[in-house]
Amino acid sequence: MVKPPLKAPARPAKPPRLRWDSKPVRKPNPNAAPSKGALERKDGEERIAKLLARAGVASRREIERMIADGRVTLNDEKVETPATLLKSLRGVAVDGKAVGQPAPTQLYMFHKPEGCLTAERDFSGRKTIYDVLPTDLPRLMPIGRLDLNTEGLLLLTNDGEFKRQMELPSTGVERTYRARCFGDVSQEQLEELIHGIEIEGVKYGKIDANLERRTGRNGWVEMTLTEGKNREVRRVLEHLGLEVSRLIRTRYGPFVLGELAPGTVGEVRRVDLIEFRKTLK
User: Fold this and answer.
1) DSSP string spanning 111-154?
2) What is the pTM of this model?
3) Which of these is catalytic: 43, 95, 136, 147?
C-alpha cells in the first residue's frame, strides 16, 4: 500500500495555563477507610476499558457501554466496572469472543468523499465510510468525525487510546479546512477569529483564517483550528454571513490530504507515526 509522504510537523501547541488553587490543601487522614469501590493498582495493571481500547475493540466510551450492557466477560463472568484492573487481556471476551493482545498502533489516511456518514452503521440506510473503505483493512476507528457533506482527510486507527488522545482539545492537534463560500467577508473580519468567537452561547477557540481567493462574491477560505467542535467551521462562517457550498479537511496534525483520491486510503509509515506521537502532550 502506498504510504503518502508527510509534511513537516505542525507548530507545537502552547502549553495550557495553570490554575492555582488558593484553598489550603486537605491532608489525607491515615486512619480513614478506603472509599467504596476504590481499587488498589499494582505494578503493570491498567483499567480494562483502556486495555480494550488499545486493542482496537472500540473507543473507551463505547467499551464502557459494552460493560454496562454485560457484553464483556472475564473468565466467563461479566465484568461489572470499566475500572477493573488487569495486567493483560487474558481470559477477556466480548460478545463471547476472546480478545487478542493489542497489535501495534496503525494509522491510515482516508479521503472521505461527500455523502457518507462517519459512523459504523446508519439505521436509516444511509451510506457510511465503512461502505466505501477497502474490505482488506484491519478493524479501524475514525479519529474525530466529518459531517455527511464534508469531504477530505479522515484519520483511522486500530488503537482506541490513541484515538481518544488525538480527539482531546487539550492535545492541541491542528486541523485545517478549505471552504468554498458565497458572500462578502474581509480579511480583517477573518483575522478577528484568532481571538476566538462566541455564537449563540457556544465559545469557539482561536481560528487562523485566511481568504485565499475570490471571484465576484464566491471565494475560498482556509481555516486552521484545534478544538473541532460539532460543525464549527460551518457555524462560524455562517455567522459571518457566508453560505458554505463545499468543505474539505486538508490536514490533521502533520498529516496532509495531498493527492489522495476520494475513497482511497494510504497508511502512515510507522516511523512517521512514532515521531508524531513523541510530540503529543
Assistant:
1) EEPTT-BSSS--TT---BHHHHS-TTSPP-EESS---TTEEEEE
2) 0.72
3) 147
